[in-house]
Design goal:
- Pathway: Quinol/quinone metabolism; menaquinone biosynthesis; Quinol/quinone metabolism; 1,4-dihydroxy-2-naphthoate biosynthesis; 1,4-dihydroxy-2-naphthoate from chorismate: step 2/7.
- The chain is α/β, with parallel strands linked by helices.
- The chain folds into three domains: about 1-180, Rossmann fold (3-Layer(aba) Sandwich), CATH 3.40.50.970; about 200-350, TPP-binding domain (Rossmann fold), CATH 3.40.50.1220; about 365-555, 3-Layer(aba) Sandwich (Rossmann fold), CATH 3.40.50.
- Helix content is about 35%, strand content about 15%.
- It has 20 helices and 20 strands.
- The protein has helices spanning about 5-15, 30-40, 50-65, 85-95, 140-160, 200-210, 230-235, 260-265, 270-275, 290-300, 330-335, 345-365, 370-380, 395-400, 420-430, 445-450, 485-490, 500-505, 520-530, 545-555; strands at about 1-5, 20-25, 45-50, 70-75, 95-105, 130, 165-170, 180, 215-220, 240-245, 255, 280-285, 305-310, 320-325, 385-390, 410, 435-440, 465-470, 510-515, 535-540.
- Strands 3-2-4-5-7-6 form a six-stranded parallel sheet, sandwiched between helices.
- Helix 3 runs parallel beside helix 4 (about 85-95).
Length: about 550
Amino acid sequence: MYPEILHAQQVVLLFKERGIKNIVISPGSRNAPLTIGFSENDYFNCYSIVDERCAAHVALGMAQQLQEPVAVLCTSGSALLNYYPAVTEAYYSEIPLIVLSADRPPHKIDIGDGQTIRQQGVYANHILYDTQLEMLLSIDNQESIATNERLINKAINTAISQHGPVHINIPFEEPLYNKVEKPSLEVKVIDLLKNESSEIPDSFIEQWKSAQRKLVILATLNPPVFDNADLDILTSDPSVLVMSEVSSNVVHDKVIWGIDTLIAPIEKEDDQIKDLQPDLVITIGGMIVSKKIKQYLRRFETKVHYHVGKRRAYDTFFKLAGHIKVKPQKWVQQLPKDYIDSNYQDRWLSHFKNYLVKRQDYFAQMPWSDFKAFEHIFPSLPDNNIVLQLGNSSTIRYAQLFQMNESHTVFSNRGTSGIDGSTSTAIGAAMASDRQVVFITGDLSFFYDSNALWNNYIPDNFKIIVINNSGGGIFRILPGHKETDEFQTYFETQHDLTAAHLCKMHGVNYQSVSEESAFAKACNLLFTSNKGPQLLEVFTPRQINDTVLLDYFKFLK
C-alpha cells in the first residue's frame, strides 16, 4: 500500500530507487503518510524509536557502520528539534543522515495551530542541504512534481557525496491516513555527478622533500584507510613521525599510539619539546581528541599544515596551507621516495618506548581507580573482530593511553564530542553490524541517554561497560577547589545512582564490580553470556581518580 498523498509517494518511490533502505521512525500523526509508505513496503527496514533524540542517534550509528545514508522520520513541532544533537554530530563527523520532518501546510504556521513551529531551515548552521517540498494536490501539477523530484534527488546526492546530514521538510494536509494500492505517479532519478581529484600539488611535494621533521597525525578514520604496506611506506622515511589516535584504527610498530603519554611528561621542558616541533604537519581523518597535541602545535606555531583526504579540512593549528583531496592511500603511494637524512622518527619512537617500559612500574602500584579499571578492561575484550564503541569525556581520553587490539574497529562520536546520544549511537551500530558491538561509557553519559535502552532492536550479544565514579570525574582533573558544595553540585554533579533498576526495567542483564580482585570473573561472565544484552557496572572511588591519572604523567616525567 502507498499513501494517497502524492508528494509522500514521491519520497517513498525515490528512496527506493536510490537504495535508501533503513528508516528510523518516531511515532506521530503528521508523519503518517510517510510512515504508511515506508512500513507497508517490504523493501524498507523500518524501526520504531519513541524518543526522537535517541532515534536520531540510532540512525547515526547505523549510517556510521553501513557507510550509507539512513533516514530518520518524525512528526511536526518540537519532535525535529530533538534531532539536533545527532544532526550536529553527523555534520562534524561527516555521516550521511537524512532527516525527514512532517509539517503543517505553510498557511497554518504561526496562526496558533497545535504542534507547529517554524521548521524550514531549523538546522541552518549545521546542515549540508535544507529544503521544503511543495504540496502536490493534483497529478496534473507537473511543475511541482518536477520540482520535488529535483529537491529529493539533490538531498540524497548531497548526503552521499558530501558525507553529512540533509533535511527535507514535508508539509501535509489532512486526511493523512488514506491509502492506495498503486502509486499515482512515476519518479525520475537524477544521478550523482562524481568529481574526484587525484593530483598532489607540486608545492606540497617540494615542501615534503625539504622538511627534515614531518609529523603525520591520524585522527578518526573509518577503516579500511591504510593497509600495512601503506604504513610501511610512510614510516620508512626517517624524517616522518606518525602519531595515531585511538579512533584512527591504525596499529603499526612504527606509529606512536599514545600521544599524551609521549607529550605530557616533556610538555614544559622547552628545550626538549622544541625538538619535537615539526617543519610540516599532515592531518588525516576527523577531529583530533588529544588536547595536548593541539595545544603543543599551537604553542610552538606550526609552520605549515596540510590536510589529506576527502574529509573536511580544519585549520586546527591556525596554519592550514592546503587541503589535498585525494584518498590517503593514494597520497602515500605518490610520496617521493628520495628520503632526507633525519633522526626525527627514531628519536621520538625511542622516547615513547622508554615511557612504555617505565609506566609498568606505575601500573604495578596503581590503586583501584578509573585508570586501573581501564588497564583491565582493554586486555579483557574478546580477541576477535568486534566493534568497539567509546563514550566521550573520560572514556575516550583513558582509551588514548592504551594500544588497541588490531582486530577491533573503534568508533566514537567525536564530531561535537558530546556525551548525549553515545549509547543510542552504539545501539544503532549494533543493529546495523553483523559483528559484536561492545560499548564503554561513563556514568553521566549513560544516565543522560538512558532512553536508548527503550528499544526493541538491541542484539543479544550487545555489551555495555559503565564506569561509575559517582559524577563527572573528568572535571576533577581541571584546576579549582574540588571539595566544595559548588564544585560537587555544579561541576562534578555528584550522585548515588546505579544502572541496576534501568536494566531491570528494560530487560538488560546486569552485574556490578567494585574492586580489582573481582573484575576478571565479572568480565568473563559479561562476554560468555549472550542470552540478551549485558551491562557491567564498574564502581570506582570518586575522589582519587584525578590524582591517579595526573600522577601517571608526573611519574613518567
